[in-house]
TrEMBL record, chain A:
Pfam families: FA_desaturase. This is Fatty acid desaturase. It comes from the Bacteria. Residues 1-26 are annotated as: Disordered. One of its GO terms (molecular function) is oxidoreductase activity, acting on paired donors, with oxidation of a pair of donors resulting in the reduction of molecular oxygen to two molecules of water. Residues 76-342 form the Fatty acid desaturase domain. GO terms for cellular component: membrane. One of its GO terms (biological process) is lipid biosynthetic process.
From TrEMBL, chain B:
Keywords: 2Fe-2S, FAD, Flavoprotein, Iron, Iron-sulfur, Metal-binding, Oxidoreductase. It comes from the Bacteria. PROSITE patterns: FAD_FR (PS51384). This is Oxidoreductase. It comes from Streptomyces poonensis.
Length: 378, 375
């Protein structure tokens, strides 16, 4: 057994050393095997799945837009807004996020490929792929390296230094959630990296221009062109589009926050990740992620990020396979004494908010490095 | 007048779609049209198989109706890259058109011989049914008759190598007014009459067309099989071969011996050939120098290490880059990509080159030290 592992992640043990044991190599082999089995079976059925999602998204979008064109009629407004919201959510998560992860590159189809895909989001694909695929997935939950750990403005771990502004973080988190896509676009520009001299100013300016142009195109479509075309239905059409975009932002915000911030999820220090082996990388991904329990509809609407643990272990496996491997991943992790953080949406969401509020306050005592995040040692 | 109208209406359609693109951004209007029918897509040209006709036990003709985005052949003898989805993966291979050039949207055909372990050819020859949609690349290729066609022609083919030549013959036969004194000789090798692709049609042409002669060589027919067609027989079959413009298509051995023979006689300019199959790779550089090199794909932001004997195409695909490709053997130029930095070695010849901006064939080029491609 993994002797160095805390069996109870909630145990407030200051000597809680980073879990490092030779068993991580066995863990690595077992997880590699699961991955290899999926790769061996990956084929026509998976391709059919993603083509279906693509078709459903486009049909929903066309239907939603048509209904919103006559949205002076209240039922048309409702149906149109619901269809457009669903379409945008699918496009954002199950399509955009997963395709840009390269989950479908194996099909060798330039029409559904990480290098060619662009999404209905103000942040350009290339900028997101850099901050997300490269930085976040490589440095998952490493304090100081994973910018997604609080998105540079929130304090989500005891190891992050507290500043008075964090007192306000519950408010600005709530205020920002409806505009999540726009804030994410700002975030992907990495202004913080310019200040830290990791990103040249010139590159920042170029990216900023790209983002403004892309954002303007996306906004013009939803808030100008479609309303104008809707003629007498212009105002309800605009409101429908605004509702769809806002609902998508709120949903994406919820799914993403539930992926890494509920109780039981750990963060890491940079020293802990030095000379990390494949098995240790797996371990960090498993400890740094949390799942959401639910039915098929929930999984599809979260882009299967409800299987955040499986996604972080195998970011490039096709998302439709996560549900299938989840029970085996859980068995392997449990057998190694590694906690598998999961729960229903409401529970995970509440737990995320509890952390946002708790971390708004300074630590009540000095946190030892490597402490399980989310534990109030008091 | 009619042509004007077509050009005009296509122009209008394009203008409207460009305007609609503002509404569909980041997708294109095209992407939504393709939902109704993949053949409407200009972005990802496709065609639908309308007829499947067995030619011999292992060769099948597919009649394909191309969609809006496909650029048809200009000359008889050109080929088309065909993308086939097998087990969810899109595979590209090139096939010679067997029909003369047509108008945009007009059906064309290809004829595919199933190789014993061929991934794509088995599928196309034995499993495709009418209704299947195939992706298409633009028709292209330099192996075609000059315009106007030369008066005296020698066509030298073996096996499935008949396909581009069949398109030429059909074009000549359909063309009507041929120059006086036109004389076309086809020397074709096949296992036996039953296994001759297009055998009946060629024999009928031989009967019907005064300017056409067919010489059939059967490698396995009769009590004493004749074996492979060699050039030693050529003077007997075609005494004036030196005076004829010659088009060769068939197995590598035939092509190679023809190339050498024509070169020895100083007639290389008269010989045109099409290669279906890969050339053997040149021996690697030998023990000196590093065995792997760093290869970067600038547009995709991907970096990988590749063996100095590994085609950049394979290295890129293995690293998950959307690599354009076609024949994968250095013939079709479907994989040509701009080199930004570094030098590459041609795996066939061993020749090393590389200037920024060079267009290189990734399928037959390997890295010679660090290389950056604009992909
Ligand atoms: C310009 C051009 C035009 C072509 N036109 C035609 C055509 O009209 N009809 C047609 O049937 N084919 C044609 N080909 C060949 C075709 O593109 C494929 O190479 C062929 O169908 C084999 O593909 P595959 O996927 O079945 O074989 P693969 O699965 O790629 O290969 C299976 C095995 O066959 C060998 N092999 C691959 N290609 C050949 C070959 N051409 N000859 C002998 N062995 C080979 C491989 O080395 C391998 O061992 C053309 C090729 C080119 C470059
Ligand atoms: S793919 Fe044809 S030249 Fe490389």
């Amino acid at each position: 057994m993994a002797t160095a592992l805390p069996t109870d992640p909630a145990a407030p043990d200051p000597s809680d050393a980073p879990p490092r044991s030779t068993d991580t190599e066995a863990l690595g082999r077992e997880l590699d095997r699961i991955r290899a089995e999926v790769l061996a079976r990956r084929g026509a059925e998976d391709a059919r799945y993603i083509h279906t999602v693509v078709a459903v998204h486009r049909r929903l979008e066309v239907g939603g837009r048509l209904a919103l064109a006559i949205s002076l009629l209240p039922p048309a407004w409702l149906a149109g807004t619901a269809a457009l919201t669903t379409a945008k959510i699918l496009e954002n998560l199950e399509l955009g996020h997963n395709i840009m992860h390269g989950q479908w590159d194996w099909m060798r189809d330039p029409a559904i490929h990480s290098t060619t895909w662009e999404w209905d989001n103000p942040t350009p694909a290339y900028a997101w792929k850099h901050t997300h695929n490269h930085i976040h997935h490589t440095w998952t939950n490493v304090v100081g390296r994973d910018r997604d750990l609080g998105f540079t403005v929130l304090r989500m771990s005891e190891e992050q230094p507290w500043r008075p502004v964090h007192l306000l973080q519950p408010f600005y988190t709530a205020l920002g959630a409806p505009f999540f896509e726009w804030l994410a676009a700002l975030y992907d520009l990495e202004a913080d990296a310019v200040l830290q001299r990791r990103k040249p100013l010139r590159a920042f300016l170029r990216d900023a221009v790209n983002t403004v142009c892309k954002g303007a195109r996306q906004a013009a479509k939803d808030y100008l062109l479609f309303p104008l075309l809707a003629g007498p239905s212009a105002v309800p059409c605009l409101l429908g589009n605004l509702t769809a975009n806002t609902a998508r932002s709120l949903w994406a915000h919820t799914v993403i926050f539930c992926g890494h911030f509920p109780d039981g999820v750990r963060s890491f220090t940079e020293e802990e990740t030095e000379h990390e082996t494949r098995g240790q990388w797996y371990l960090r991904q498993a400890l740094g992620s949390a799942n959401i329990e639910g039915g098929t509809a929930l999984h599809v609407l979260t882009g299967n990020l409800s299987h955040q643990i499986e996604h972080h272990l195998f970011p490039d496996l096709p998302s439709n396979r996560y549900a299938e491997i989840a029970p085996r991943v859980r068995d392997v992790l449990t057998a190694h004494g590694i906690p598998y953080t999961t729960g229903p949406l409401l529970q995970q969401y509440a737990s995320t908010w509890a952390r946002i509020c708790r971390m708004a306050l300074p630590n009540l005592h000095r946190a030892a490095p490597g402490r399980p995040r989310g534990e109030d040692p008091a | 007048m009619a042509l004007h109208r077509i050009v005009w209406s296509e122009g209008v359609v394009r203008l409207v779609l460009t305007a609609v693109d503002r509404l569909t951004t980041p997708l294109l209007a095209d992407d939504y049209l393709a939902l109704a029918d993949p053949l409407l897509s200009r972005r990802w040209p496709a065609g639908r198989v309308t007829q499947v006709r067995a030619e011999t036990a292992d060769a099948t003709t597919l009649v394909i109706r191309p969609g809006r985005g496909w650029r048809p052949a200009r000359m008889a003898g050109q080929y088309v890259p065909v993308g086939v989805r097998i087990d969810g993966v899109l595979h590209w291979r090139t096939y010679s058109l067997t029909t003369p050039p047509g108008r945009p949207g007009e059906p064309f055909s290809i004829t595919v011989r199933a190789l014993p372990d061929g991934r794509v050819s088995q599928h196309l020859a034995h499993r495709v049914r009418p209704g299947e949609v195939l992706r298409l690349g633009p028709a292209q290729g330099e192996f075609h008759l000059p315009d106007p066609p030369p008066g005296r022609l020698l066509l030298l083919t073996a096996g499935i190598g008949i396909t581009p030549v069949m398109a030429m013959l059909r074009a000549l036969a359909a063309g009507g007014r041929l120059a006086a004194g036109t004389d076309v000789l086809l020397v074709h090798s096949a296992p036996d009459p039953a296994r001759t692709v297009f055998g009946p049609e060629l024999r009928a042409m031989d009967q019907r067309l005064p300017w056409f002669r067919l010489y059939e060589h059967h490698t396995r027919a009769g009590a004493r099989p004749a074996g492979h067609l060699t050039l030693a027989r050529l003077p007997a079959v075609c005494p004036d071969w030196r005076e004829r413009a010659t088009f060769v298509c068939g197995p590598a051995a035939l092509l190679e011996s023809a190339r050498r023979r024509w070169a020895v006689e100083g007639l290389a300019g008269r010989l045109h050939f099409e290669r279906f199959c890969p050339l053997p790779p040149a021996p690697s550089l030998g023990g000196t120098g590093p065995q792997t090199a760093r290869v970067s794909f600038a547009a995709s932001g991907v970096e990988t290490a590749a063996g100095t004997g590994t085609p950049l195409l394979e290295a890129g695909e293995a690293a998950g880059v959307a690599m354009p490709s076609g024949c994968r053997m250095g013939i079709c130029f479907g994989c040509v990509s701009p080199l930004l930095h570094g030098r590459v070695r041609d795996l066939r010849t061993g020749e090393v080159r590389g200037e920024p901006g060079d267009l290189i064939q990734t399928c037959v080029s390997a890295a010679c030290g660090p290389v950056t491609l604009d992909l």
